[in-house]
Amino acid sequence: MPTLDSSKTGHPEPVTNWPLRVRAPKPQSGTAIRTIRIGLLGLGQVGQAVARLAADRAATAQAGIRFQVEQALVRDLAKARGCPKPGRLTDNATAFLRGTYDVVIEVLDTVEPARTLVARLLGRGTAVVTANKALVAEHGAQLDSIAASRGAAFRYEATALAAVPFLGTLADRPLVASVDRVLAIVNGTSNYLLTSLAQPGITFDQALKGAQALGYAEPNAARDLDGLDAADKLVLLTSIFGWGRLSREALDVSGIRSVTADDLAAARSLGGTIKPIVSAERDASGVRAFVGPAFLAATEPLASLGGALNGIRLDGRHITNLFFSGPGAGPDVTAVTLLDDAIQAAAALHPALRPGAGPKRSAGLRLGPAPERSVFPASPATPWFLRVTCPGVLPAATAIAPLVAAAGLPVERVADYANANSRWLLIGPQGRRAVDGAIETLAATHRIDAVGFRRL
Ligand SMILES: NC(=O)c1ccc[n+]([C@@H]2O[C@H](COP(=O)([O-])OP(=O)(O)OC[C@H]3O[C@@H](n4cnc5c(N)ncnc54)[C@H](OP(=O)(O)O)[C@@H]3O)[C@@H](O)[C@H]2O)c1
Fold first, then answer.
1. Does the C-beta of 329 come closer than 6 Å to ligand 1?
2. Would residue 272 count as lying in a domain?
3. CB 3.0 to 4.6 Å from 12: which of 2, 128, 337, 381, for a disulfide?
4. How far apart (Å, rounded) are the C-alpha atoms in residues 39 and 213?
5. In the structure, what pLDDT confidence band is assigned to residue 356 with cuts at 50, 70 and 90?
6. Residue 120 CA to ligand 1 centre (angstroms)
7. Packing angle of the helix pair 331-349, 45-54 (nearest 10 deg)
């Protein structure tokens, strides 16, 4: 077998001549470190983490980069901050806009003034990187088109699965990115809670208090627990994939508050678990989507993600079972994605920063055509995992199945697992309306309480 450099002798050299000699230009010693001037919109949890990492010369020198935080915009100048001081701190948006930046990192916590400021910056050709999912979900298409018209980079890898940099990977691969099915865990707080609830003897309230103590859940965790944060992220993801903008009103959303430790134990006895899922699929007939806790077989990759991990599984015309996972949020990991995005954005302006000599990257990250179009997702028909409870009495397995079937649900199996007054059943594919109707019938005619979770 020839080595890579057998040209000198004209004869192949034996394979034992290791290491290979490869003809390649020597790397330049002492490559110039370039400085990227950063403007920071917001210096809260994520903003401070960005400022800390930006100041970590050892971390950034490896990338041949130095960050200089020129100015940061905040609401309250007097607040204590746990990060190096930026060149200037201001509470005046006009003063911030007068600054000169290679890249502005937007980490405000509201849509306004973020939308106005980002539109102004992109409009004057300044690159913007953001972690603000509400901003991108509501105004991403408009901001993308401003960025494209001015040749400015607009990147938002940190908005969905903040520390799982999969969008950038797909942006370079349009065939892979033609996705028709998205199945994901996008809310780390909910995943952490359900993982904790699977531990013996833990109640939902105890799991929530533990998550709050560790900083995984906000003091007011309603948006996480009720599926609203996950719904925002699903709207954002499908929009990035070019499906159009899912109507939030039409989206079938349920939260995780109804899941109990016994539900998780029953799911385990059937070879599965319950995870906080967002799911969307599209075909010629339209889009079907839901957000909510769902029973997953243990063989599904998402079922193995414990704690606050996030993950996403993508299927499309050209790929199946493409799976990414990692930490979903947290200031420090989000800062890594933001500064990587900032390097990419700066590279569009300074080719010397770009690794390799490939064609110029597109200004932004959008994977599909800019979607202004509204899409009304239908609630899908799926199999279900049903908990039935008869107050004060354990329903006999042989008696409960006919009652559930008579209420209109196709019973596939009654689990062996039971507690004092509940049993769990596997139900065949049904739409939500049929399941809700059957639950009402069971309550009205037999005083049986039932709670249904989708099964995937
Ligand atoms: N936390 C995470 O792990 C995470 C992960 C991914 C994405 N994100 C997203 O990143 C963004 C920032 O999150 P965060 O946790 O850092 O929020 P945060 O701690 O609430 O920080 C928000 C920052 O914005 C500033 N601000 C808000 N309104 C302003 C206004 N009108 N004028 C000037 N400054 C204003 C605040 O100023 P003051 O400090 O003076 O109040 C604060 O510095 C959010 O959009 C969030 O969804 C967060």
1. yes
2. yes
3. 2
4. 32
5. very low
6. 19
7. 60
Say whether pLDDT at 412 is over 90. Answer: yes
Angle between helices 133-150 and 228-240 (to 10 degrees): 20
Contact residues for 21 (Cβ-Cβ < 8 A; gap 6+): 3, 4, 5
Q: Contact at 8 Å (CB) between 152 and 125? A: yes
Question: Within this chain, do residues 196 and 125 fall inside the same structural domain, yes or no?
Answer: no
Assess whether 107 and 245 both reside in one domain: no
Q: Which two tokens stand for residue 161?
A: 């699965």
Residue 48 CA to ligand 1 center (angstroms) comes to: 10
**How many of the other CB atoms lie within 10 Å of CB of 209?**
13
**pLDDT, greater one: 168 or 340:** 340
Domain harbouring 271, CATH code: 3.30.360.10
Q: Are residues 394 and 426 in the same domain?
A: yes
Q: Ligand 1 within 6 A of 110 CB?
A: yes
Instruction: Please indicate whether residue 233 is annotated as part of the active site.
Output: yes
Does the Cβ of 215 fall within 6 Å of ligand 1? no
Segments forming the whole domain that contains residue 304: 179-327
195 and 72 in a common domain: no
What confidence tens digit (pLDDT) does each residue in 9-46 have?
445 555 555 566 666 555 455 456 689 999 999 999 99
pLDDT number for residue 5: 43
User: What is the model's pTM?
Assistant: 0.84
**What share of the chain in percent tops pLDDT 90?**
66
Binned at pLDDT 50, 70 and 90, residue 363 comes out as very low
| pLDDT tens profile 418-441 | 999 999 999 999 999 999 999 999
User: Does ligand 1 lie within 6 Å of residue 51's CB atom?
Assistant: no
Q: Are residues 207 and 316 in the same domain?
A: yes
Measure Cα distances from 14 to 8, 20, 93, 140, 195 in Å.
14, 11, 68, 58, 56
Catalytic residue among 26, 79, 233, 275: 233
- Compute, in angstroms, the gap from residue 118 CA to the centroid of ligand 1: 15
Using omega within 30 degrees of 0 as the cis cutoff, is the peptide bond preceding 19 cis?
yes
Give, using CA atoms, the residue closest to atom 41 of ligand 1: 75
Confidence of residue 2 (pLDDT cuts 50, 70, 90): very low
* CB within 8 Å of 61: residues ≥ 6 apart: 33
Angle 402-408-411 (CA atoms, 0-180°, nearest 5)?
50
CATH code of the domain containing 417:
3.30.70.260
Pocket test for ligand 1, best of 69, 73, 74, 340 (most atoms within 8 A of CB): 74
